[in-house]
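Q: What structure does this chain adopt?
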Amino acid sequence: MSHQKSRRAFLGQSAALSAGVWLGTSLKSSTRASALQSLSAACIGVGGKGSSDTSQIAEQGVNIVGLCDVDGRTLKKKGREFRDAEQFQDFREMLDKLGDKVDIVTVSTPDHTHAVAAVRAMKMKKHVYCQKPLTWSIGEARLMRETAEKMGVVTQMGNQGTSENGLREAVEVIRAGTIGDVREVHVWTNRPIWPQGAGRPEGSDPIPEELDWDSWIGPAPMRPYKGEKTYHSFNWRGWIDFGTGALGDMACHTTNMPVMALKLWDPIAVTALKNSGIVDNEQYPSNSTLKFEFPERDGLAATDFYWYDGGNLPADEILDQLPESFQEKIAAQKSGKIRTSGAVVIGSEGVIFSKNDYGAEYELIRNGKPTKDFELPERSLPRVPYEGLTDERQKWEFVKSITGEHQPGTMSNFGYAGRLTETMLVGILALRGEVGKRLEWNAEKLQCTNVPSANQFVQREYRDGWTL
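A:
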């Protein structure tokens, strides 16, 4: 590259990849980019998953210039790692001040603030890495997808299994027809591992001096602070105002492989087959089983997709097809021991089973037995040519797509991730309704056509001061 080229020109170009990369050439590098190639990032939410997101972006040669977290204790801790980064507790202030100094914004906050932060950043032409699920509401997911396309920025959602070769291979195997026509998919999770199925606690507690409670609440309705860990810093996932429950937490991981392989988006109906109930409109059910219906699409057979959480499992005739070693774990779960997670894709000529939360490992099962005696289809999806942990591979793909060094771009970009999130969040509508009530869904219009009362949950009005 000529040194006469500007940094902006560099960021906009796409460098050609060699054939060696496509064949799986391994790369292992955390070297810093040159001054001309250097990227800068502002990171929103730097505790928990946000801590590793921030560090892993930096490991790819990105300069961290801004750190934001509503909890001053978390901010101070992460600031020790990035001593030159400016610190903020309100991301709006950070983006206003550092907007012209950053190329990348990471969003690793509770679900309810993903959209307000990410849309603001994308409108400023920033490339965005956002944790899963992409958004709190269906309407926000559609807006995120449309904004990313309009602004032309590089985006990636944090369902890191997307960057694993095993997931991409499983997608190719299913798409190639190796297991025949697929009419059923079953996915279950060991979540929730936080409180769900209760009401709001009474009273209030003093807000810790280090916590900006107003910024933590963000666009959601204001409520009193109540004790460490009631909402902040982890148990927010179970609360309707802030999280998306077990479905939102894990479906973007565990359903990712079958959704991608079978184009399972835009369901025509969803039904809560089991639902322990939402208490006082506060917390998600402690357990649920959902059925999503997908019509024929692009030559694929109509497919029913079943989701299970809170210890619920598929029927025994489904589980009996799985490897004996895994059936032992199922038996242990049924006896009250540790819960399992899994994904089963049932075809007319076989079954694909993944026991990996990310879909990164899979087995082909025929006649009730795992088999390796099958021919892999020709590769149709790019591989990530970087050796590292799953999270690191996802960050590599994101950063190198920005610099143009990974020409295929990010696979879990907001165009795909937005559709995946929309699909899963339609299930939230069923959780808010009656057990056994089939909700008919018009994905184009984002409307429940037979239960109009469900449409109030497609999106919500934001609290004053918080806008998209």
